[in-house]
Amino acid sequence: MQENNFKLGSLALYKIRPARVLSVTDKIEIELEGAKLKRVRPKDLSLLHPGPLAALSELKSCEGEITEAWELLAESETNLSELSELIYGEYTPMTAWTTWQLVADGLYFEGKPDCIHARSAEQVELDHKQRQEKAVAEQAWSAFLARLNASKIIPQDHHYLLEVERLALKQSKSSRILQILERQQTAENAHRLLVSLGYWQPTFNPYPQRLNQPLTSPDIALPSLPDDERVDLTHLPAFAIDDEGNQDPDDAISLDGDRIWVHVADVAALVAPDSPLDLEARARSASLYLPETTVQMLPWTVTEQLGLGLSETSPALSFGFRLTEDTELTDIQVTRSWVQVKRLSYAEADSQLCAAPLDQLQRLTQRYYARRQAAEALQLDLPEVRVQLLNEEVQIEPLDRKKSREMVTNAMLMAGEAAARFAQEREIPIPFATQAASSMTAPPHSLATMYACRRSLKPSQTVCTPGRHAGLGLAIYCRATSPLRRYADLVVHQQLTAHLSGGELLPIKAVTERMAAVSAVTGSVRKAERFSNLHWKLIYLKRNPKWRGEGVVVELQNQRATIIIPALAMETKLRLSKPLALDTQLNLELSGVDLADLTARFRIFE
Questions:
Q1: Are 1 and 81 in contact (CB under 8 A)?
Q2: What per-residue confidence (pLDDT) applies to 4?
Q3: What integer pLDDT is reported at residue 399 of this predicted model?
Q4: Where are the beta strands (DSSP E) in 287-410?
Q5: For the chain, which domains are there?
Q6: Which regions in the chain score pLDDT beneath 50?
Q7: Is the peptide bond before 579 cis (omega within 30 degrees of 0)?
C-alpha cells in the first residue's frame, strides 16, 4: 500500500467516515457524505486508496471471499491493499472501503490500514456467538416493547421489569423503560406502571422495601436458657393483658400485698451483648408491625421460649415497687424470676376490674396517673385505629379506651421509672428516654388543640444521661418493658442482668454507640409502619368508593384546612369555600384515591 501521499481524488479515512480529497495545500480539503466540505490537517486522515475516486457514491458493497482470506492469513499480518486483493481480487477505492469496513467491524480482522491482523479462530468464534446472542436479545427486547405498548406482557417479560421495580422500591433512580415510555422517572410512576401491567398486585405494599426493612424474621439458633438462680414468684397471679390476637406477650402485672410487680420477658437471658442475636436485633432496632404481617426483631423461637404465658412458667426480669402516700416509687426491687402468667385481652381484663387483684392494681395505677397529670403529663386523646389484613379483607377498628388499657399503660410507665431509678442509683449505664416540654402553655382540651400540641412536641431522645420526659410527666424514665421488640429495652435488660449477676457492664460509650446505631433504623421502621397503615387504609377506601364519614377541622392556613377523620385516624386537606372555625365537624365523602401517591381526596357534602 502507498504512503500517505494525498492527491486529488484519493480515498481517505476521516475519523470513521470515507472522505474524497479535493485539494492539497498546507491543509487538505475533503468532501464527506452529503456533499459536506471540510479542511483538515494531514495527520487527521488515513489514506485508504490513492484514487482516483470520482465520487463517494461509487463506494458500494461488493461480494468477496472473506472467510477464505481470513483462513489463508492464519493470524498473520497484512495491509489494506493486500487484504483487498485477497478478498476481492483487486485493490480499488470500492474494494478498499469495503475491506476497511470489515476491519472496522472487528470480527475477522483488526488493526490500522497499514497493519492489519487476522484474528484467531477462538476470538472469532467467541465474538460470533456473542453477536448472535445480542441479536436474539435485541429481537426479544423489541417484541417486549411491542407487548409493553399494548399493555399485554407475558410472564417471560418479568425480568425486563426488574429495573422498573427497583425504581418503584427506590433502589435506583432511573429506568430505561420509563424513559422509553416518556414518563417522569419517579417511584410513584414506576408503581403505577407495575400495577397496570399486573406485575404487582393492586394491593402490593412497597413501603417496607423502600425503607430497606427486612421482610422476614431472623432465623438464628438460640443458646440454651442458663440455669441461673431465680426468685420463685409463681404463687402470685400474673396477667399479660394485650390486644386480641397479640403474638408476642412480653410483659405482665401482679400484686403482692401493696407491692406492684411488672414482669418482663427475660430476653437478656438468651441474647448476650455482641452475640449474633444481639447484632441482628441491633441492625433491625425494632420489630416491624404491618397490617399484613409482623417481622420480628428477634427469631420467633425467642418469643416461643420467653413470651409470658406461652408456657406453664416463664423466666422474667421482674420490677417490684411500692407507692408512697404522694405516689412516688419506693422500695424498688429488680430480680430475675419465675412467673406463672395468665393471658387476657383488654376486654376480658375490663370485665375483671371489679375483682382482686385487678381492682387494687387499677386504683394504684390511677393514683400514679394523677401524679403524672399534676406534673403536666400530656394526655392527647387523638383518634387511633388498628388496621389489619384478615383473609384479604382490610379491617379498621378504633383503638378502644378501655380502663384496663390505661391501667397497663401506667403500670409499664411505673416499671420504666423504676428501672431508670434503680440504674441511676447504682450508676448503671443505660439508655434513658427524655423529651422536652411542649411550647404550648394551656393544656389541650379539644381535637384541634391536641393536634397542635402534638405538632409542637419535639421527638423524644434516647440518651445515656437521665433527664425529664415532659410528655409523660416523669423526672426520669427508660423503656424497659418490650425487649422482645425494641432494642433499647433489650440493652436496659442486658445492663441490669449484668449488674444482678455480678457480670461486666457495658461502658457508657458502648451504650451510646449502640443507641446511635439504631436511631436512624428506628426512624425507618416507624415510617414503614406509618406508610403501610396508610396504604391499607387507602386500599379500604378504594374498595368502598361511596365511603362517607365525619371529619373535624384541626388546623387552618389561609383557605386550606387540615381535617382529621376519626373513623380512619387519617388526615386530609381541603380548600374551603367559606371560613370555618377550629373543631368544626364536617360531613365528608370520598372523591378519589391515588394509591401510588399515597393520597385520598374528600369533599364536603350537606
A1: yes
A2: 60
A3: 87
A4: 288-289, 294-295, 314-323, 329-339, 341-345, 385-390, 393-398
A5: 11-119 (no CATH), 130-200 (1.10.10.10), 231-529 (no CATH), 544-604 (2.40.50.140)
A6: 1-3
A7: no
